[in-house]
Amino acid sequence: MPRSVPATPVGAIVLAAGASSRMGEPKPLVRLSDGRTFLEAIAGALREGGVGGPILVVTGSHRATVAREARRLGLSPVRCLRHRDGQLASARTGLTAALRRGAARWLLLPCDLPHLASDTVARLLRVPAPAVPVRRGRPGHPLSLDRASLRALLRDRGARNLREAVRRASLNTRRVAVSDRAIHQNVNRPADLRRWERS
Questions:
Q1: Residue 135 pairs with which residues in a beta bridge?
Q2: What is the 8-class DSSP label of residue 130?
Q3: E-strand spans in the chain?
Q4: Residues 6+ apart with CB under 8 A from 163
Q5: Which of 26, 117, 128, 141 is deepest in the core (most CB within 10 A)?
Q6: What pLDDT was estimated at residue 8?
Q7: Is this prediction's pTM over 0.90?
Q8: How many other C-beta atoms can be found within 10 angstroms of the C-beta atom of residue 172?
Q9: Whole-angstrom Cα distance, residue 154 to residue 13?
Q10: Who's near 106: CB < 8 A, 6+ residues apart?
Q11: Which domains does the chain have, with CATH numbers?
């Protein structure tokens, strides 16, 4: 049964600028047991869940190889010049790029959620933005944002990280209950991925 897609195409911002030092290779290029890269799996979940607009991939430490994979998948790489400043700097690069595009809503997420369920994406898109998926009372990714939310996050220059920026923006975020444990996935080492795929 096809997903119901909002009338205005939804875009996505995938944060993929980190050094991946503990993983030993760029996270977006790590392969799952089925042969897909993290980035490929995330893009698949986003598309199947209803993201019909551009998927921006914020690059940094491994810019050339990550950008090449993004283009192979039909995604749009966006270079973050200040990626060494952390995830918030990468997010700001992605949010700024998103405001230049036509989509009215954007999903923001890190690149280490390769097991994200497309149903989680679809559930987020059924409610007005801003919204966040919640499992067992704990919010996770992706964060669903409208254009006003993007601007609010970009106005704040005092936050130390993305979580603090979201809190300080007072977005009045809706909480969407899901059963998808992948909204809390955080793969930092090869052993993390092996444990996840065995469970």
A1: 138
A2: S
A3: 10-16, 55-59, 76-79, 105-110, 131-135, 138-139, 143-146, 174-177
A4: none
A5: 26
A6: 67
A7: yes
A8: 7
A9: 14
A10: 10, 11, 12, 13, 95, 98, 144, 145, 150
A11: 10-198 (3.90.550.10)
